[in-house]
Amino acid sequence: MPELPEVEALAAFLRERAVGHAVARVDVLAISALKTYDPPVTALAGLSITGVARHGKFLDIDVDGLHLVIHLARAGWLRWREEVPARPARPGGKNPLGVRVHLDDGSGFDLTEAGSKKGLAVYVVRDPAEVPGVATLGPDPLDDGFTVEALRGIVKGRRTQIKGLLRDQRIVAGIGNAYSDEVLHAARMSPFKIADTLTDDEITGLHEAIITTLHDAVARSTGLAAQDLKGEKKTGLRVHGRTGEKCPVCGDTIREVSFADSSLQYCPTCQTGGKPLADRRLSRLLK
């Protein structure tokens, strides 16, 4: 799933490639991806792209005051094309095309989505705050206002596991499953630790881990072409998706806890005092 660093890099990429160009037309192949009807998507034709922003994991393309807001969900992606085929696009394929945006110089981009579970969401709105997911976003960790004191106010009083808190977009915007694993590894903190139990020193360490991890990931992604961002994310991760490999910090074996539709990875030595966390899926099988 594209998270804050990848969406930030996509926004920078589109600022360079798309701003200043007019939208020639927008083809919608997956009707389920288009979440709004007023203004119609056809209203974008002939208007110029004036800016690109990011709200959490949402990409916001300003088209002369109308906003094309995109959420790539779990398996969506933006694929830039220097030349968009003139022939009408067809549905289907390995990465089915959901939406295609044609620009006035013949370039453009596709919004695709792999897998059977569809979550790609595209909105055409007059104000990004009209998108429900944008309106309820928590503070952005790259904003200046996201201080240690702000994080202290977020965690105190919350009797929830810190892993879930970091992933909740209503609490902190932009961090998903992968970077929450990376942040907690950098902070040397168990993903199951209860937020309200964090000491002042742990909050300070967690804040530093959030800022450093995200800034480093953004820096690695900056300047890359859109098609290279997925690979950069994967190679830059230290624990997420690396079950069974050696921890790059201590050499212990990275372990996994599986859930119904996701999993987390962590290092026992770095994060849990050497004790493996219970894999709840395995525990159910053993009962």
TrEMBL record:
Record domain FPG-type: where: 238-272
Keywords (A to Z) from UniProt: DNA damage, DNA repair, DNA-binding, Glycosidase, Hydrolase, Lyase, Metal-binding, Multifunctional enzyme, Zinc, Zinc-finger
InterPro entries: FPG_cat, FPG_N, H2TH_FPG, Ribosomal_uS13-like_H2TH, Znf_DNA_glyclase/AP_lyase, Znf_FPG/IleRS
Coiled coil (residue ranges): none
Keyword DNA-binding applies: yes
Domain named Formamidopyrimidine-DNA glycosylase catalytic: residues: 2-93
SMART domains: Fapy_DNA_glyco (SM00898), H2TH (SM01232)
Superkingdom: Bacteria
Pfam families cross-referenced by the UniProt entry: Fapy_DNA_glyco, H2TH, zf-FPG_IleRS
Catalytic activity: Hydrolysis of DNA containing ring-opened 7-methylguanine residues, releasing 2,6-diamino-4-hydroxy-5-(N-methyl)formamidopyrimidine
Keyword Metal-binding: yes
Cofactor(s) in the UniProt record: Zn(2+)
SUPFAM superfamilies: Glucocorticoid receptor-like (DNA-binding domain), N-terminal domain of MutM-like DNA repair proteins, S13-like H2TH domain
UniProt record similarity statement: Belongs to the FPG family.
Record-given protein name: Fpg/Nei family DNA glycosylase
Organism in which the protein naturally occurs: Actinomadura miaoliensis
